[in-house]
Fold this sequence. Notes:
- The protein is mostly helical.
- It has a single domain (10-48, 59-348), classed as Na+/H+ antiporter like fold (Up-down Bundle), CATH 1.20.1530.
- It has helices at 8-29, 35-49, 59-72, 77-85, 87-103, 105-112, 116-123, 128-138, 142-167, 185-204, 210-225, 234-249, 262-290, 294-301, 306-316, 320-348.
- It is globular.
- The model is unreliable at 1-8 (pLDDT under 50).
- InterPro entries: AbrB_fam (IPR007820).
- Pfam families: AbrB.
Amino acid sequence: MTEKTFSPRTEDYIRTALLALMGGALLHALHVPLGWMIGAMLASAYLGWRGVAAVPGLLRPAGLVVLGLGLGQTFTAPVMAAVAASLPAILVGGVASIAAGIAVIPLYRRLAGTDLRTAYYAAIPGGILTMAVLAQRAGANVGAATLSQTLRMATVVLTFPPLIALFAHGARDDAFASVLPPVAWGGLVLLLAGGIAIALLGAKAGLANAAMLAPCLLSMALSGLGWLPSSIPRWMVDLAQVAMGASLGLRLTPQALGGGPRRQALAGLVSALAVSLLLVMLGLLIGWAAGLPPVAVVLGMAPGGMPEMAVTAKALDLAVPLVLGFHLIRTIMCNLLVGPLWRGGIALGLWR
């Protein structure tokens, strides 16, 4: 009888899954904010640099469906009212995020030695896929823009959660706190099935980041109406973080980053730190002026991904709906305004 062996591809999947779980569990045990996601990301990136990492393509969208449902469930009727009252500040935050990205364009361009069009799409803090698509449509260097956006995302995921945690104590705002129903297995199965179905419909309709946004909107509606059949258990959210982290880690390998020049990588890192600093200051100012919890507003203004920052807010008990609202509005604004702003600036001779 011959010994059963795994093919390299199968071994890579198993190795990545085990190390991602171990890395996430270790950082979680050390009480690192967003530990499950960061640990999985670092483990996946390490294996990716060695050329032995593999993550199923469906893992990230599956994790996004769970996170979308878990985050949307926090929007009970009272919380929705509180978020609606904060809408002016959220809109200002969206405009400020785009403006901060525009402000660091000269810095990125000087360090990267690239053209203005590419610098524009590399510096504005939008989603990785969103900005890559917009850069392609505008005829910019997609590789450079994607490299910058990916490095910004990784930088924010690694720095913001531990820094925010230092100031999170006592920053909880009861106006954004939710009382959730207990876990009911029958209701949970229905909720997950509904989340998957609406995510597929959203993707077919062309909704940006449909895997998260569509289930999140479904969960928000059910929670706001008091019809939520079950809450999402914590362990399921933790596994979704591992899925997200492992998928993000694969984007940090030389192959995934396209082997961009070192000066483009340096420009991406420096501009990420610059825009982060600007948005921290703007977040504190907007939070103070609007009477909102400043730490939560800073997290809402952070130039990271919507799921990553919302999960950080959940882990630190920091007004998840408010943070999610800031990121949701910024995502919509980037999709609607970044392209027209570039074309309008060219027509008016503003971009030189």
